[in-house]
Design goal:
Length: 267
Amino acid sequence: MILIEGTSNVAFGEGTLSESELTIYQKKKNSPIEYRYDSVDTLLFELYMRTQIMESAKELNKARVYFADFKKTLCNPMYWHLTNHGRFQLNSGVAPQDAIRDIFTNGSSYAFECSMAVVVVLYKALLESIDPRQFDILFADLLLFDWHSNSKLHLIDRTCNEEAVVGDVLYFENPDFVPSVPWWKGENVVLMENDLFYGHGHGLGITSGEQVIKVLNNNRMIGSTKSAFLSDRYVHPDFSCFAEFQHRLREKPIIAKVGDWIYVRKS
């Protein structure tokens, strides 16, 4: 259930939402869980950024970035300093937006593992959703690693993966992975349309959950009978933290409140 300023009565004019945005909206609206928004603008921003997460995942999938564990991580030294722990620290004097875009335009200069990949996707989607100048201010000391270490994304933990929608970050766990090969422990993925997932690791790309499990199951300890599985936990950015910075060039819809109803249509 979606609640905006105490009401769930929202009507969107034809063409106001893209097909992807409408699908996300309808799933959350029909959910028994309450999703609260302080304004229609915040809801619209979330729907837009979620589609940008999906588009950024598609772009990274085509960017020819190599998969590598932390010890073999690579980055473009023009934009990033590679730390001893395999993290990307933004170089002094470099605009954060330029450094993020370089990963997508010069992908062959980069190599990282799946958790770094989802962080890169989230930052790129955020860059496409807010004013780029504000992006540079918010992330002036940008440090890229896994999503556990990027507090500035304001990630929200959720459970019950059946509630996940496009743009959420999920995890396939492989309980019987070989300890000497830790990159088979699991796969961080971005939920795409049509129940597909984007995973950077192991050459997965954009594929089904069944295929992710199959690949992980082929890389377990000998004799294992424990299948890989989709974890119940998932995360997404706190979209409300960034809604006030949304891109000024985006066309703002007309929003009118009549009684208990909120009407939204293209301007």
